[in-house]
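The passage that follows is intended for readers who have already worked through the single-chain material. We present the inputs for a multi-component assembly, then the predicted structure in tokenized form, and finally a short commentary. You are encouraged to pause after the input and sketch how you expect the pieces to fit together before reading on.
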Amino acid sequence: MPSLAPSRSRAPRRIVAGEHHRSRHHGRRNLRAYLFLAPFLVVFATFIVTPAVFGLYISVTNWSPFRKRIDFVGLANYIDLFTPGALASQNFWQSMGATGWFVLWSVPLLLIIPLLVSLLLNQKLRGMTVFRTIFFAPYVLGVAIIGLVWGYIFDTQSGILNHLLHSIGVAQDIPWTVNTPWVWVSLVGVTIWWTMGLNTVIFLAGLKGINTDLYEAAAIDGAGRFQAFCHVTLPGLRPVMLFITTTTVLASANMFGQSYLLTRGGPGTATRTAIMYISDQGLSQNNMAGATAMSYILFLILAVISIINFQVQKDRTEGRGA
Amino acid sequence: MSATTSIVTRRRPVRRLTAVIVLYTVLGLLSLIIALPLIWMMITSFKTDSDAVQHPYSLPNPVSADAYLSFTSGQQPILRWLLNSFGAATIQTILILITASMGAYALARMDFAGKKIIFGLVVAMLMVPPVVFLLPNYLIVRELGWLDTMLAITIPGAAGSFGIFFLRQFFIGLPKEIEEAARIDGAGDVRIFVQIVLPLVKPALATLAVLSFLNNWNDFLWPVYVLLSPERMTLQPGLSMLQGAYREHFGIVMAGAAIASIPVLIIFAAAQRQIVDSVTGAAVKG
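Having made your guess, compare it with the prediction:
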């Protein structure tokens, strides 16, 4: 790997040295750098770069574990997904719709609730660290434990939530994990319970980073609490807001465990998310070629959303910043 | 409740006190909502099946350890899963720390041919969501004969570019004089890196370690597909199997959840400052 090509940013002290000496020096320098990089490059090339390229290749072939000969099929797998009426496209876009629906409900709630909670926690009062610890705790548990505990809570016949509702006068059993729209309430609710602590502590760190002089200045200008919030807190949180929106959208768009464990994608395929459909098609149904095409479409859509989100928030910051 | 309160108290004591009480009440109720499912989990794990169904929110009567004892039969090797999870997360974290710190040091501090290309690739791959790697990586891991082994759940996950990207910023921020002084003293590359540079970025390494560990610990989709035999499983796929097998046995299911969550909650309680600082540090500064 070490190349003898002179690098553009050569060390000024060496310029006086002869051509031969310099290339040998460069060779040694390259070797040294690549020795440090080698462990990373080996895994990075094998499990990141190769699969990214390999996946793209599979998606333009009729790749199948049972096929001896693999043929190039061009964009056929992609075109299938955009052919209305085809089974693959119907199922795929339905799962994308389910994912979008989940993102639409979970992301705003996962921004607003943690923001409010972080404002409550941002007080110089005793016990705030204890509350912060409690709110964050579910996040370290992992989705399987969430599935076990909430599966029990949500169980239609013997779950404690319905028991509790009975005791306060709700007559019917609510099918939390069986019927729409309740499945969505459950999935979004569980996700909030599980991950709101993460966003809360990030907002809290953002709040602590806002210069307190700004609040004093606002108070001198006669700003009330709400005005101070709008004109000092929110603009101060902008970089953190961009980070949280981006990561929360991505996390929600990649939702898998909650549906897999609590609703099994049901009722029917109503809560089957894109990740669930793609992994099932590729790994269980042997539709590897179609599934890789789907994963690239999902990637493109997420990339577009990220770019739009980034632009919108950046424009707003610049508009305000002056 | 000392300094800040007393200043304000002089101005409008009643309103301030009311606000504090309301604040504590709201936070207390929220904590209860967050904690109740876990408290319920603990209580139910000591109940018999019929007790769990008939008296869902009373204390266990009789107090029964049957659910816990059922795990000793070896059919659901939950302690094994716990160990596997700890092992996998630890191995992967160490791998990431080694590969990312060495690579990031080269990217931050050395000049070499191809540097721009490699850094460009690292940044580009940072944008690609994991689902894109999922299917081809499954084929690669199967080709390598790693299915159903520890290798499958430790090595591919260590390849991501977050770590190297994250550490690079910290190495760039270090003053160059420190290394130059060491070089004049005759220290070689490896010694400078291990004895001088790494100790200076300890907080960043700790942050990366916490994030990597949590990431592997919480990973669900990948182990569900690459781990097959019960004794090789980690907690996440193992517990989801348990959920399928004992759907109506609430006591056993909750005992499983309790065994799986208590060690993690204890570690979290002990290291909560470090963990919270890590996740926020990566967000606010990174």
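Commentary: Residues 1-50 of chain A form one domain. Chain A is about 70% helix and 0% strand. How closely did your sketch match?
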